Amino acid sequence: MEWADFGFALLGGVLIGFSAVLLLWFNGRIAGISGILSGLVRPTAGDLSWRVAFAGGLLAGGLALRLFMPSALPTTHEAHWLVVLVAGFLVGFGARVGSGCTSGHGVCGIGRLSLRSIVATTTFILTGAITVFVAGLTGVHP
Amino acid sequence: MRSGKKRGLLTAFVAAFLFAVGLGVGGMTHPANVIGFLDFTGEWRPALLGVMVGGISVYYLLHRQILKLHRPVFHDAFSMPTKKTPDARLLIGAAIFGVGWGLGGICPGPAVTSVAAGSEAFLIFLVALFAGFLAAPQPKPKTARIALEVPPAH
User: Which of A41, A75, A124, A126 to mutate to test the interface with B (most CBs of B within 10 A)?
Assistant: First the structure.
């Protein structure tokens, strides 16, 4: 994707923004995906069903993309499966310790002008960029 | 309000559906776009910036209007984060998150959405993601509603 496709990215972001607004308006919740998903494996009483519905919605959205916009979904990952495994663990661990991920901090938090979220987002973009640089040098990223 | 709770399930589903479609349209489901955005010294890809600008703008403009309401439509109260200032835990967690994010080019939303494509790599990522959730030390109560029930320790 290059600058010519920036419009699609912007449109995707607007859809995500409206989704987060909807969840705040009707359910009173911040659309932080890591927070919502982690509640599935550490449930508290009366707080599970909406999380299951949300995870189901993400999957259903993925299936809709598969049907109507198949190019939107990746079918393979370039990196070795061990790299993907380690990446998944660090993302889950870091998101819990840091109270959020790209959605909760990067969209909702910054949208609320939260200092914590601005600091968190700056931090993970920085360490992400360093990681991509090092992974490129060492051949971890093909 | 039982029916309200049930309708809350529907709105959670619809919001997540919309979120997943937004991720797909915005190109966030492709790890190459995420890694390309973080590759400032290489061939930089701006897609993630567009998604963030779009999402932040909409949320910034509309969330204030919603918080002026006394309560969300299907719940008794808004569940908002109560912490205001950054701390070591936030910085360490975000730094670790960034390393994993740069390594795989996948964050939690796209991880679930992309599983629909039937790719093994995304299933592996998703299982590891939940293992990471479970391995992380439990965060302190962070929403207003929980904070009311459990007084802060300090």
Answer: A124
